[in-house]
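Students often ask why inverse folding is considered easier than folding. One informal answer: many sequences map to the same fold, so there is more than one right answer. In these notes we will look at a single instance of the problem. The structure comes first.
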């Protein structure tokens, strides 16, 4: 199904239905640059002259340019950006970044003001914003960003609360505080860039320890050089681009990790089972070490992770066909038009998803939704009976499956343009919840009203609880916290 939405200046097309969405994601002649350019200009403060470099890049993000493109190789900013992020977050950089994140977050939680006796705290999400948000920023972008900007983490969350006003293109006089906050963050990013390059010029650039402190990784330093090499880009425009990356990196995975942990700690049975699955892969003495490769293979934990994203992610995924008309589901879409898919619509498609006869509605969180029990023909994520690859025998037990969900489970988008940070995000979510379950006991004290999830950034982010989530927390005894 396709829905044409008429705006003042143009039409956009909303693609619905798993088959149609999968068809769009498989198409190699599509680009994301127009939507990216709009966000850079209105949400992250890039000047129009610099934005034109993105609007002009109709070559796509694959090694071979889209047919009909005449963009020079040195100005293929979308391809170069995509390759840099794939290398830095998905391939070479995944392991080192994950290791840094684990070390930083473990230390942060070790130093949290939590004792062996119950401590009451006002908001579970704020706890994750402070500890997890800081750990992600430092592990990906380096210590210098936060050292130069001590209030950056809280400013980023304050910005996240007002970003929708910027996305709606409200003028500065209507929302002056939002613009001021955005400008402050951009200046903080620029200040970080200036400091890092100043030290680069003075010392050897091949020192991994120094790079970790200044840039987070080689990929981030190379990204800065690459972006500045593109026509019409300046120090100011690159600061806008990196602010966009920082915001996208932090503000979805942190509340998603909180949502996963929240459902674990609210369900004592689920928490007990999760802890029993985690325990064999957690070394507590002499230091706390987690084997994430084995944690990530546990069917129940995989299912809880996948359901967290199905339940919470509400993002518009944009595409544009720059050089030819596009046929989707038998309908021809004109060249140059914006095409959107929405994750929430896909994640609540009743034609695809299994609810076990409405016992587990799609608006609710069901931890076992992605599990297939060989002894239960009604199990599994889809309405149509599916089995994991290999058709396990009954004695092989319950297994995780996402089969049959192409175009239906799309928290990271899909196809070549799927989020390069998807494996890192999965590791962050499962690692943070493993650490929380291992190190702490948590009792959620929120009212039912506060526990309802709202959509303050529908189309632009993830669901969050409507109110603050008060909780009490204590350290679990007989767990070593040294790192």
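Output (designed amino acids):
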């Amino acid at each position: 199904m396709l829905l044409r939405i008429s705006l003042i200046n143009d039409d956009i097309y909303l693609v619905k239905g798993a088959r149609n969405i999968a068809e769009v994601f498989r198409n190699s002649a599509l680009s994301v640059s127009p939507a990216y350019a709009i966000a850079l200009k209105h949400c992250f403060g890039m000047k129009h002259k610099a934005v034109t470099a993105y609007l002009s890049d109709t070559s796509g993000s694959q090694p071979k340019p889209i047919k009909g493109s005449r963009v020079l190789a040195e100005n293929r900013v979308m391809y170069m950006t995509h390759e840099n992020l794939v290398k830095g977050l998905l391939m070479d950089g995944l392991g080192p970044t994950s290791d840094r994140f684990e070390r930083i977050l473990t230390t942060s939680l070790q130093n949290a003001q939590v004792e062996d006796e119950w401590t009451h705290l006002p908001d579970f999400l704020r706890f994750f914003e402070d500890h997890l948000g800081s750990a992600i920023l430092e592990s990906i972008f380096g210590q210098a960003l936060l050292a130069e900007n001590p209030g950056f983490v809280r400013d980023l969350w304050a910005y996240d609360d007002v970003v929708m006003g910027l996305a709606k293109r409200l003028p500065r006089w209507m929302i002056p505080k939002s613009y001021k906050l955005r400008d402050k963050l951009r200046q903080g990013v620029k200040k970080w860039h200036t400091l890092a390059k100043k030290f680069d010029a003075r010392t050897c650039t091949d020192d991994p320890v120094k790079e970790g402190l200044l840039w987070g990784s080689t990929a981030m330093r190379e990204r800065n050089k690459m972006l500045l090499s593109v026509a019409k880009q300046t120090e100011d425009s690159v600061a806008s681009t990196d602010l966009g990356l920082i915001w996208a990196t932090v503000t979805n995975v942190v509340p998603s990790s909180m949502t996963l942990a929240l459902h674990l700690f609210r369900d004592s049975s689920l928490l007990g089972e999760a802890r029993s699955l985690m325990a064999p892969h957690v070394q507590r003495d002499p230091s706390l070490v987690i084997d994430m490769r084995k944690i990530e293979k546990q069917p129940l934990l995989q299912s809880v992770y996948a359901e967290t994203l199905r339940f919470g992610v509400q993002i518009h995924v944009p595409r544009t066909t720059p050089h030819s008309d596009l046929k989707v589901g038998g309908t021809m879409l004109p060249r140059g038009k914006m095409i959107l898919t929405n994750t929430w619509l896909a994640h609540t498609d009743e034609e695809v998803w299994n609810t076990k006869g409405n016992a587990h509605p799609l608006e609710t969180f069901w931890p076992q939704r992605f599990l297939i029990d060989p002894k239960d023909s009604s199990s599994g994520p889809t309405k149509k009976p599916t089995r994991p690859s290999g058709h396990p025998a009954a004695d092989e037990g319950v297994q995780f499956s996402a089969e049959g969900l192409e175009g239906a489970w799309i928290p990271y988008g899909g196809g070549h343009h799927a989020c390069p940070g998807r494996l890192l995000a999965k590791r962050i979510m499962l690692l943070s919840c493993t650490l929380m379950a291992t190190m702490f006991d948590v009792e959620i004290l929120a009212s039912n009203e506060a526990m309802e999830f709202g959509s303050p950034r529908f189309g632009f982010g993830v669901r969050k609880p409507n109110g603050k989530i008060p909780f009490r927390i204590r350290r679990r005894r007989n767990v070593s916290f040294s790192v």
